[in-house]
Amino acid sequence: MQQPKVIVVMPAYNAARTLRMTYEELPKEYIHSIILVDDGSTDDTIAIARRLNLEVFVHTRNFGYGANQKTCYREALKAGADIVAMVHPDYQYDPTLLPQIIQPIVDGKADIVLGSRLQKGSALEQGMPWWKYFSNRFLTGLENICFGLDHSEYHTGYRAFHRSALEAVNFEMNSDGFVFDQEIIAQAVASRLRIDEIAVPVRYFKEASSASFLQSSVYGLRILWLLAKYMAHKTGIHCSRQFESLDRRYHAATEQEAKAHSAN
After folding, report:
1. Taking CA atoms, which of 3, 76, 89, 177 is between 20 and 30 Å from 38?
2. Where are any strands of DSSP class E within 101-186?
3. Is 249 inside any structural domain?
């Protein structure tokens, strides 16, 4: 059986202090290539990435975390990835767990896999700030109600996608900010994609990137607005192109063209 082409994408911003550590612990035997997208770093992130022979794409300024991911996924799909795994280069998530993250997709059991910090163990004991922990729990619970699912966490940066999942959702319509992570999940749910989760430990330390209390508060409010838009779409109150499956639109257009052709 041919092994899937796994491409790791790293959305980077000022990750010079942790990039090498993250790279060295990635299990290379599972990976075809690594793409790093630098979002206007002011440190040595680009130089280190090039010394590590990563495929580097550079944003001329800081466009935002969501914009960074858009470039990551766009370039991974262009490179022919079967599975795209996002690994933050800040060493907060354990790179050695990549095989477990992609395995449900390899087995054909999931389209998207999330690395959950809250499924097992105590994230608080591992250093997660209390306000971030409880807001994560609250927002995840609310999302479970809206999505009709039962996951332990949606607010993780450790995730993997089957190629078809990225092609099914219109991620280019999403925000350039942090809420991109939740928008793509809402799109996946609207497209009825299968989402699984794997327990991963969390590491908080000085060099690891982390959103401030203010940034997290704004992020939380944007998630509430996202859920309102999703529910309006789901109930038919206000349908949004953002949540339409590109696969369905493609097939609908194909069927319409076939009918028009047969009519002629």
Report:
1. 3
2. 112-116, 159-162
3. yes
**Quick one: 173 exposed, middle or buried, by C-beta within 10 A (0-12, 13-18, 19+)?**
middle
Residue 1 lies in a domain: no
Please give the model's pTM, rounded to 2 decimal places: 0.89
Tens digits of per-residue pLDDT, 47-75?
Answer: 999 999 999 999 999 999 999 999 999 99
pLDDT, one tens digit per residue, over 80-127 is: 999 999 999 999 999 999 999 999 999 999 999 999 988 776 676 667
As a whole number of angstroms, the distance between CA 150 and CA 179 comes to 20
Asked if residue 33 belongs to a domain, the reply is: yes
Tell me which residue range forms the domain holding 92: 6-263
Name the domain count of the chain.
1
**Edge-to-edge order in the sheet of strand 33-39:** 55-59, 33-39, 6-12, 83-86, 159-162, 112-116, 195-199
